[in-house]
Amino acid sequence: MSTGGLGRGVGVIGAGYVGLTLSVFLASKGVKTICVERDGDKVRKIMDGVSPIHEQGLPELLQHVVRDGVLEARDEIGDMLERVDIVFITVGTPTGTDGVPDLSQVEEASRQIGEAMPTRRGATPLIVVKSTVPPGTTWHVVRPLIEEASGRTCGEEFHLCVNPEFLREGSALQDTMNPDRIVIGAKHGEAAERLKKFYEALYHPSKIPTLVTTPTNAELIKLATNAFLALKISFINLISQVCEATEDGDVGVVAEGLGLDPRIGPLFLRAGLGFGGSCLPKDLRSLRWFAARLGVDTLLFEAIIGINRAQRLRIVEKAESMLGGLSGKRVAVLGLAFKPGTDDVRESASIDIIRELLARGAEVRVHDPAALENARRVLGEGVTYCSELYECLDSADLAIIATEWPEYTDPDPSTIKSLMRKPLIIDGRRVLNTRRLLEAGIRIHTVGLYSPLA
Known about the structure:
The chain is an alpha/beta fold and 454 residues long. The chain folds into 2 domains: 10-213, NAD(P)-binding Rossmann-like Domain (Rossmann fold); 237-446, Rossmann fold. Helix content is 43%, strand content 13%. The protein has 17 helices and 14 strands. The protein has a 6-stranded parallel beta sheet with strand order 3-2-1-4-5-6, sandwiched between helices. Strands 11-10-9-12-13-14 form a 6-stranded parallel beta sheet. Helix 5 (104-116) links the parallel strand 4 and strand 5 (126-129). Helix 1 crosses helix 3 (58-67) and helix 12 (299-323) packs across helix 13 (349-359). The chain is elongated and about 75 Å long. The termini are far apart.
């Protein structure tokens, strides 16, 4: 496959959801790609054609590009900068509960890039920060670290851009293949133009809307995007609480009506157990922290976080109410990943709910088609892990649907009634085909739906 316009090759530092997905996609387009990951086990899996993450379509494409020799994974940068024109930084930037970002991986990657820059003059590598970072990080942290380690000057002997990702876990590969926009932040026009032309060649003949701005604005766009999506989720969850307390209230219908307004739109208006994962909670906390440092009122951010936390607690309280107490009761939790299509349990609503159930004396059994092992690393042996759905429901007093996996939408009513001690279900994700279940005498509480008997 021709790689005209795409240069000699691309380096990617970090093989998480963003880095590995980007690496595999670039390699699938014929771009010679070197992915650097310090976790040796991940590197071995990648080079064996085995995806270390659960992402739709990724395993098959990974096998193909490794077999064809277009993708190489390694645990050190080595001579990478002698062989590529562009390097993407895609390492993690976790935050604590206070929102303070941990930039150690970004800083380490920056130093390593600087130390590995070719000594010959004339080569001007383009470094692209794709990791989500607080405003000012690329120019005031990454740039000086690379300059100090390399002895080179940004804008003259290397170029630097911010290029935030807007991927959704579970569909990250499709989002990488078909982005809805590209944001490029740069201080120097040549840097932005190089990255813009790279993407034009990569996505040709598609023309992706592209915004070129400053590094600070690009960094802010990413944080503001995820904060706004979190706002929409918390808003509709607050409305769901109103609907539950209002005769004939149904948040699904209310959300549909809202979504028909072109000023609002239908996306991210699905009531449930709130947002989780590695992006929205982290980025919202980071923006709150950044704003507070500037003296900006963060009341709205606090409310978004508070509603999200309360929505999970409400489910536990509803379970306690339906059972007349949780001590000694067996509760089946269906779904551990923070969303379907992934094995990621970071900040999953399910994990918080399980911990609260255990704290109130419940015996908890769990099921998930992809995330059992990741959940085990977080929850330990305090719960029973079930590889089959109906095994999880066996002798349960109540079941909670916590992740909207397709497997949970239409369970067999007769099997549920024969297995569960009490046929009680809390549909935390509004996915159940309730008609058959209700006709069979199974009692259901659906988030956002008025239910005077629940």
